[in-house]
Specification:
30% helix, 5 helices, 5-stranded mixed β-sheet, alpha/beta, 155 residues
Length: 155
Amino acid sequence: MALLTTSLKTPVGTLHLVADEHVLLRTSFEEIDLNSADVKRVKSIPVISDLIADYFDGDIEAISAITVRQEGPKFSQSAWKAMRKIKAGKVLSYADLAKRAGSADAVRAAGSACAKNAIAVVVPCHRIVKTGGALGNYAYGLEVKEWLLRHEGAL
C-alpha cells in the first residue's frame, strides 16, 4: 500500500501530511521530502484531513481521534504518548512531561522528544512550556506555538 500525502491550508501556514492508510505518520509546516517511489499525492487523506480541518475550524478536541505512529527511542515514545494525553487548552512543563514519560530526571530528554516530534499539532508538543509558563521553543516558530495555544484557549 502506498503512503498518502496531502497539504492542508491552515491559519498558520500549509500543513503537510503523510499517512499509511488511516495512521498519520508525519506532519510539518515545511515541505516533507519523501524519498519513496511508493507515495501517492491525494486531495485529502480520508478521516485524517477532515479531523485536522475540524481542529483548525474550532473543534480543538478533533485531533485526539487521529491514530499516529512514529519511530523513536523508548523514552520519546513515552513522551509522545504523554503529550497526546494533555487536553487542548492545557499546558505542561518539560519537567512534568519528563515525570509523565517515566523519568523525572529526564527533562532534557523530554525537550529532545519535543524537538524530534514528527507529527506536529496532532502530537501536541506545542502544549509543552517551560517551568513558570514561558513558551520555550517550537520548531515552526514561537508565533505558531502561540497561535495554537491561543486557538486552544491556553493563553
